[in-house]
Design goal:
The protein is mainly β. It is about 10% helix and about 35% strand. A hairpin with a 3-residue loop joins strand 4 and strand 5. Helix 6 runs antiparallel to helix 7. The C terminus is likely disordered.
Length: about 450
């Protein structure tokens, strides 16, 4: 006996979309809230149907999404190759790998300043650049949001007119307090007011100036403290609560501390025996960002010291277990010809960026897992070019603007592999550039 299946009756009604399933908006928000904060993940979920996209694009949901995840993803790092435009390199793999051209900053002499722009700080979704010109020194400050593209130009503190031959470093921070523990960096840092801290030294005295975006000026108070025979300040700044730290280099190598609340400077002294014959000194944070640490490099040996207060209330430095990077990173003999360098440190992720003679790695200080990021020769124009000495890790949420893609934009995105480059192409209506990593 042969049975024939009866075809379904013809109807003009389409099958129900997923957004017509019996799932309340509140439950759906809780589901979407747990989507990982990587660049393409939320827009992938938003592309399921119109209802999911509407909820994911709600400003209130986006604020909750950032607050729920707390720390934004580490997208990559910025670097200033000698004599070239600032560059970006991604740390994430495809499809979340951000193409370098997405964070391209074109700053030529059309600013009427001339000179060169150099990164000096990167924190809370913003970067700070200083404009330097030979013989004139620092002449202007630029605050840049790479995701939105917003640029803010700042003039220098008027108090600098009275100072001569001062070497400067600077950083930008979210103005919301961290001491109370009720502020989640990465949630709404970029919508909050910000502060710029400019520190400098004339070899005997350190100075600090603070700019507030709320008042629009540098204030009348300039902090200062004696620092002995200080030749220069390190370019790397770390933040622990309401304190900022820079290395002081000179006859004595110590650490400069700036108190954001009291707007005062002081020196954390480092005994000479800790850094005798060193190949590099780098301040870091330990104990999940709550304690001050110091890396002392000797060839490929990385000795970490922790600043602690003992039971008698006396401060001092405690050595931790050394890390031998040549063994950890499986470096060849040729890569150890020059001392291994520490290029940068991501406080939020406890990731250290280190460089051998030929490669750049990212090393997690807790797990000691590492990842090769790129080759050093990517930043060299010729064999005589100087290698880079610092990178600035960049962490930020990177999906809100994509949720506003038009239906045509979503269609263009689906036509390519689901990647950062494809979404950028969909938002502009242009195909991805040749060479873009689409995964």
């Amino acid at each position: 006996m042969i049975s024939h299946s009866t075809p379904p009756p013809e109807t003009d009604e389409m099958p129900p979309e997923m957004d017509e399933m019996p799932l309340s908006d509140d439950v759906l928000r809780e589901i979407l809230l747990r989507v990982p904060p990587l660049p393409t993940q939320l827009i992938r979920a938003a592309a399921v149907c119109r209802r999911w996209r509407r909820i994911a694009a709600e400003p209130g949901f986006q604020r909750r999404y950032r607050a729920h995840h707390g720390e934004p993803p580490l997208l990559g790092f910025f670097v200033n190759p000698r004599g070239r435009e600032p560059l970006f390199r991604a740390t994430l793999d495809a499809p979340d790998r951000v193409p370098p051209e997405r964070f391209s900053l074109r700053l030529h002499d059309d600013t009427e300043l001339g000179g060169n722009w150099y990164y000096h700080g990167c924190r809370h979704g913003r970067l700070l650049l200083l404009n330097w010109k030979s013989g004139l020194g620092c002449r202007q400050i630029l605050i840049w949001d790479p995701v939105s593209g917003d640029l803010i130009h700042l003039s220098l503190p008027p108090q600098l007119d009275a100072l001569k031959r001062v070497f400067f470093q600077a950083t930008v921070i979210c103005a919301a307090t961290t001491a109370a523990g009720d502020h989640v960096h990465g949630d709404n840092c970029k919508s909050n007011p910000f502060k710029v801290v400019l520190v400098g030294t004339d070899r005997s005295t350190a100075f600090a100036f603070v700019y507030s975006s709320e008042t629009g000026d540098w204030g009348d108070h300039a902090a200062e403290t004696p620092v002995g025979n200080c030749i220069s300040l390190g370019c790397r700044c770390i933040q622990i609560g309401d304190f900022l730290y820079w290395m002081l280099f000179g006859y004595d190598n110590n650490i400069l501390e700036f108190d954001l609340v009291n707007q005062s400077l002081s020196v954390v002294y480092v005994p000479t025996h800790i850094h005798e014959d060193h190949d590099g000194l780098y301040p870091i944070t330990l104990q999940e960002g709550t304690e001050l640490g110091l890396i002392v490099m000797s060839r490929s040996c990385m000795q970490i010291w922790q600043w602690m207060i003992d039971f008698d209330g006396l401060p001092g430095w405690l050595p931790l277990e050394p890390i031998y990077l040549d063994n950890l990173l499986h470096l060849s003999a040729g890569e150890c010809v020059n001392p291994t360098k520490v290029l940068g440190f991501s406080q939020d992720y406890n990731e250290l960026f280190v460089a051998s003679s030929t490669r750049i790695f990212m090393v997690n200080l807790e797990s000691l897992q590492f990842k090769e990021l790129c080759k050093m020769d990517e930043f060299l124009e010729s064999p005589d070019s100087r290698p880079i000495y610092a990178v600035y890790p960049f962490a930020s949420f990177y999906d809100a603007e994509w949720l506003n893609l038009s239906s045509a934009g979503l269609a263009r995105w689906r036509a390519h592999p689901f990647s950062v480059a494809a979404v950028d192409a969909a938002s502009t209506g242009r195909p991805p550039e040749s060479g873009s990593q689409l995964g």
